């Protein structure tokens, strides 16, 4: 082994002095930063102009769409008013009507006016003016117009020579005398001389809110002009009358009826979009004004963002490049710290290549390693364990006895006049221990057990090999001459090893001692016999010694008992998703097994049978075990557990809980599917005599499950849902047909007498009264 000199940390950590470090840093920085900078500059110069044009086009299209929406709503209001004006209720009979005596008719007209007022959110007020001897106004309450100015106001509407007209005026009837936009229609709607007028006053606030949709941003203005170039209504955001007048004048001077232009105002450039709305006997012009900065603000933000990201990427690239270069150079620096013999050999001091230094010294290390490898090859305990593993697994079955002995002797065993026996040491009480297996590290505990036995066995046997099973158990293959005191020595060894393990690991031990054999080919059978024999341990947390030379098989005469009733209760609890109840029943199941026999060989089959029944239930529910257990060999895992309480925990955590959680998740989907199927059936066959039981049978489930599913999915009971569907269908027939109520009750699945009672209970009034109320409304 070569000699190394410890160097000062300051010299080793100063990697920037190394040419290798600097070249890697610069290369990584270029690779990281240049693509981002080039991409950022390209996006900034070539993408900004295109996106700005698309934003402007999008803005104009948005204004046009919003204007069409406003036009449609105003047109709908005009058509609706014409429809109402032609209503037979507003004919010449109103002139001769005594509104005081015939108060019922007056109430119906007022109700009609209220319906008209509530039919459109733009309507603030609806009035009916009648030009009789004593002018009458319903708004919607009945009143006589005695004020001369007020009478002249309504008379001017009636005499403007237009059947339908839009007007902007100061309504003297308003408390604030504010200007209002109104739509009026003379009655009757036919071409006969009018005797009155229906006047709809527009809600300025609602119309302004509608107009503000033409301003997609927080700044700007919008307004409407009539044919006389008068401003009907305007919505402004921090803009004065001079601004509106300027925009109005420039819009009027435009040659096209629809289009856009820009103008400057107070060091700000604005985009103006305008167009035409065709009203009855009139053409309006809408105008939308928005600052260019608001339209292009996204692209300005994106441009700035691109630059910020590009420069941020450059800074981040510098930091990451430094970090990456340091990480890349760290192992080289560490190798140099190991290999460099003196400080003058450092590459940044004499310009030598680091990898040349590493290569030279690695050659020295390799030579030394080969020498050590030869020394290690003389240590063959691992080879012995490997040989026994192959022998135990049957890989050497075709070898003859002579060949097997020859191989064993080559590994250092002395086999002349020797016999073989096996001692198995199994740890128990792990589940109840608080000191051991805090992280469930079985391998670490088993390794500790292996070391204890290896040290302790040296005082009793000259030749032995420890085999680590890695499952909290260790085998000890002993090669010893035949002697009369061997049995006593084995017992002393078992008792002493048990005491030491109890003290060090604080665990209980089951020691199984095999019979002795004299042939190597019988060693695999020795492992099998010990594996079978140790299953005759009692399923209790205590030290036990099983000597197979003294065992005569009397335990086979014990009668085996299996608690079938408890098994059924466990399956039922799992079906209901009761995890805690299942845990208690599994513990009860094991206790009942222990009542007749506490040996593992009799208890283990019962536990495996219980797992098989649970797995059968899992398969019966439509879940594949591989889906639940992820392909694990669960029976093998269960067979390796040597403690009853650990078995209970394993059953609950590895089997019951995952199954219940998976089943509950699938049940929610199945419930929804069942309810959707039944809802579709009810919507199509509500008129039939339908019951919960019939629907449950139709979807292959029971009434309880279907009722529970309805309540969980729709938050309503089955019968309530069916009743709601039938009543809704009955309402449609009452309003839209002239069918008799008795026929309607049969068409929705009810008897006549019961239909009246259930309809009144659900709606609050009988069917006949409901039809009358809705018809009059």
TrEMBL record:
Residues in domain HTH araC/xylS-type? 676-773
Keywords assigned: DNA-binding, Membrane, Transcription, Transcription regulation, Transmembrane, Transmembrane helix
* SUPFAM superfamilies xrefs: Homeodomain-like
Q: Which domain of life is it from?
A: Bacteria
Residues that span the membrane, as ranges: 21-46, 301-324
**Which InterPro entries does the entry mention?**
Homeodomain-like_sf, HTH_AraC, HTH_AraC-typ_CS
SMART domains from the UniProt entry: HTH_ARAC
ATP-binding as a keyword?
A: no
Q: Does the keyword Cytoplasm apply?
A: no
Q: What is this protein called?
A: AraC family transcriptional regulator
Organism from which the protein derives = Aquibacillus rhizosphaerae
């Amino acid at each position: 082994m070569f000699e190394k000199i410890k160097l000062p940390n300051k010299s080793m950590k100063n990697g920037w002095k190394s040419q290798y470090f600097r070249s890697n840093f610069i290369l990584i920085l270029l690779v990281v930063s240049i693509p981002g900078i080039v991409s950022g500059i390209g996006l900034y110069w070539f993408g900004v102009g295109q996106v700005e044009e698309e934003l402007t086009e999008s803005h104009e299209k948005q204004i046009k769409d919003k204007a069409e929406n406003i036009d449609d709503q105003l047109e709908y209001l005009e058509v609706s008013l014409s429809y109402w004006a032609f209503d037979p209720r507003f004919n010449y009979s109103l002139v001769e009507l005594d509104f005081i005596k015939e108060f019922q008719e007056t109430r119906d007209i007022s109700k009609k006016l209220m319906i008209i007022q509530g039919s459109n959110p733009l309507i603030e007020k609806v009035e009916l003016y009648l030009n009789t001897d004593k002018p009458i106004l319903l708004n919607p309450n009945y009143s006589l117009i005695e004020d001369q100015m007020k009478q002249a106001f309504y008379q001017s509407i009636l005499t403007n020579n237009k059947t339908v007209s839009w007007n902007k005026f100061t309504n003297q009837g308003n408390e604030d005398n504010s200007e209002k936009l109104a739509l009026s229609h003379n009655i009757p709607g036919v071409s006969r001389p009018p005797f009155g007028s229906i006047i709809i006053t527009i809600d300025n606030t609602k119309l302004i809110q509608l107009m503000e949709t033409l301003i997609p941003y927080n700044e700007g203005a919008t307004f409407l002009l009539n044919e006389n170039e008068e401003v009907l209504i305007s919505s402004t955001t921090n803009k004065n009358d001079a601004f509106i007048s300027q925009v109005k004048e420039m819009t009027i001077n435009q040659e096209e009826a629809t289009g856009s232009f820009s103008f400057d105002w107070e060091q700000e450039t604005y985009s103006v979009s305008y167009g035409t709305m065709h009203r009855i006997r009139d053409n309006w012009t809408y105008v939308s004004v928005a600052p260019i900065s608001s339209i292009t603000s996204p692209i300005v933000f994106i441009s700035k963002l691109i630059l910020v990201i590009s420069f941020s990427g450059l800074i981040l690239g510098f930091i990451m490049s430094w970090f990456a270069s340091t990480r890349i150079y760290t192992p080289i620096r560490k190798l140099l710290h190991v290999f460099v013999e003196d400080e003058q050999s450092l590459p940044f001091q004499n310009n030598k290549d680091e990898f040349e230094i590493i290569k030279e010294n690695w050659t020295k290390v390799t030579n030394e390693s080969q020498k050590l490898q030869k020394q290690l090859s003389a240590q063959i305990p691992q080879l012995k364990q490997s040989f026994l593993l192959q022998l135990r697994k049957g890989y050497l079955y075709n070898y003859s006895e002579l060949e097997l002995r020859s191989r064993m002797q080559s590994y250092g065993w002395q086999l002349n006049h020797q016999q073989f026996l096996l001692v198995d040491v199994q740890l128990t009480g792990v589940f109840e221990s608080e000191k051991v297996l805090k992280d469930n590290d079985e391998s670490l505990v088993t390794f500790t057990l292996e070391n204890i036995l290896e040290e302790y066995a040296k005082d009793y046997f000259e030749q032995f090999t420890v085999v680590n099973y890695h499952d909290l158990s260790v085998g000890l293959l002993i090669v010893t001459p035949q002697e009369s005191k061997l049995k006593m020595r084995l017992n002393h060894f078992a008792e002493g090893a048990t005491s030491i393990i109890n003290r060090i690991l604080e665990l209980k031990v089951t020691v199984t001692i095999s019979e002795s054999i004299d042939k190597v080919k019988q060693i695999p059978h020795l492992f099998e016999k010990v594996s079978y024999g140790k299953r005759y341990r009692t399923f209790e947390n205590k030290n036990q010694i099983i000597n197979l030379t003294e065992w005569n098989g009397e335990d086979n005469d014990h009668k085996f008992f299996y608690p079938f009733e408890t098994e059924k209760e466990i399956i039922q609890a799992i079906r209901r998703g009761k995890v805690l109840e299942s845990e208690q029943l599994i513990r009860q199941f094991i206790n009942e097994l222990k009542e007749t026999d506490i040996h593992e060989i009799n208890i283990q089959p019962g536990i495996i049978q219980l797992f098989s029944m649970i797995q059968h239930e899992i398969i019966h529910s439509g879940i594949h075990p591989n889906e639940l257990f992820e392909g694990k060999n669960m029976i093998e895992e269960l067979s390796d557990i040597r403690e009853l309480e650990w078995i209970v925990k394993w059953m609950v955590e590895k089997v019951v809980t995952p199954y219940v959680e998976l089943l509950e998740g699938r049940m929610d989907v199945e419930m929804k599917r069942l309810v959707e199927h039944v809802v579709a059936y009810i919507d199509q066959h509500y008129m039939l005599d339908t019951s919960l039981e019939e629907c449950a049978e139709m979807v292959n489930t029971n009434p309880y499950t279907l009722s529970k599913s309805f309540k969980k999915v729709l938050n309503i009971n089955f019968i309530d849902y069916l009743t709601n569907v039938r009543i809704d269908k009955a309402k449609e027939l009452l309003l839209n047909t002239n069918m008799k109520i008795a026929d309607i009750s049969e068409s929705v699945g009810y008897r006549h007498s019961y239909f009246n009672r259930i309809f009144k209970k659900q709606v609050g009034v009988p069917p006949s009264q409901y039809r009358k109320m809705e018809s009059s409304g």
